[in-house]
Each structure stands twice: as structure tokens, then as C-alpha cells.
Amino acid sequence: MPSQQVLQQKVKKVEEITHLIKQHKVIGIASLQKVRASQLQEFKKNLADIVYMRVIKNTLMKTAVENCKEKVDPEKLAGYLTGSNVYLFTNLNPFKLALLLEKGKVKTTAKAGDIAAFDVIVPAGNTGQAPGPIISQLNAVGLPTRIEAGSVWINKDTLVVRKGEAISERLAAVLSKLGIKPVEAGLSMKIAYDEGLIITQEQLQIDVNETKEGIGKAYADVFMLALSIAYPTPENMGMLMQIAHKEAYALAFNAGVPTKETVADLVRKAHMQMLSLSSRLPTLEGKTTPEEKAEKS
User: CA dist 123 to 29, 120, 133, 183, 230, Å?
Assistant: First the structure.
């Protein structure tokens, strides 16, 4: 292909990328490492309405970024335009985008050096394997075995690798034979560039349930604080009115102030006090002193 034609194609691609950058609020960079072509196509299909995905050569992306200095800082992105990447252009919240990509991951078999996506516990039970070399292979990775009914059994649930640890070649082979898939494959966001702000992979990884619990606790704490200092808000106004009414009632009742709310209880209170006093009168009469009796006589 003539060099002039190649150059024209590159210029056209850069123009297309430049247009994508200018038309979208967020630029995401995800690694293509260990991502199957079928998975990438599935992501593109599922997110087509909200995310535009494109595999772009880093050199072309750098040139396009240089053309958009008024929107993107080339220096901030330069360190991330390395390796094999897929670029995501969207107006979606970057944290929501990261969650969508996380949900699209699938479990797959491990190879030597892969990182465990979770604590891998091999359950006790029949492996379905006939006695032979498999026994020494299982024992070598810490799995206690026995032979029963012509099959190799694992004696107890056993943790063989923790989340975040590398999987050895020997363990990877054993897990594959047992049908255990300890690795997650899919797109992982390296960074998201959101209107001048770089959000790293670590920052994008949020625990939704933990975040919800934190927000719920914060709301409860603020609500109780507002109640304790009688600070009115739309959320606590009803409860503040109830507290105020209860306290006003208690004050009026204890002070013997008759109102249409307290008068019935005040009458009942007076009646109970009268009955109590009346029941004590014979006792009081029986305690008359000799002097009082002499005066009466």
C-alpha cells in the first residue's frame, strides 16, 4: 500500500478519534490483557447505547489528544497510553461504567502466574479421578486425599490460594482438572479521565453494599444530630413537632395548668390523689396523741 495512502488513513483515524474525545465527557482506558475477542464484542453489543468502545493504537490516541488540549491535558494521560488498550468514550458516570464492566467479567481457568480473583477453597468430595498420578498432584498442592469406590476423594474443604495471590503452574493444572475456575476475565478499567480529573483503577473499585451502608449510617447520624439540637428539616419536622408536643404536655401537666389536652388527666390525677388521701384517714385518726384526746374530752 503506498505510503501516502497509509498516511491519509492515519489522518482520518486521528480525526475520528479527535471527534470522539470532543463529543464525550469521559475517556476510559481498559487493558485488553487476557480479554477474549468474543468478550469484547459482547461488551460492545451490551453497552452500545451508552459507551463507544474502540481499540486504538496508542500513537494515534496521543496525536488525537494533542489535538484536544482545550479539553484534555496530554501530560495527565501520557503515562497511561501504553500497552494493549481499548478506549471507551462515554457521558456515563465513570464509577457506573466501572461497575458495568465488572459485572461483565466471567470466571475462567487459570494459567501459571494468574492472580486469584477470590479465596479458592477446594471442597471435600469425589474428584471423579481414577487413582494414579493425580494423588501425588493433589497432595503436592496441600489437598488431603483417600481412595474410595475406585475414585480419588478429597478429605476436607481446603484453601489452596487466597484472593490476590499468584497461582503456581502446579496448582493451575490441578484446579483445571477439578473444573475450578479461579480467574476472572474481562475488561478492567486502568483509569477514567473525567473532565480533567484522573480516576485510577483503585479509586474506581467501590464496594456498593459497603458504600450504601456507610451512607445509611451517615444519614442516621445526621438525622439524630438534627433532632438533638432541634434543627428543623423536611425530614425531621414531623418528629420535632411530636417531641415538642410531648414536652409541652408534660410541662403543663406537671405544673397543673389546665388545657383541653391536660384537663382530663389533671382531673384523674386529682381524683387518684383524693382516693389515696381518703384511704389514709382512718389510719391518721388512730394515731391521735393523748394530749389531743384530752383536749377533745
Answer: 38, 9, 20, 17, 56
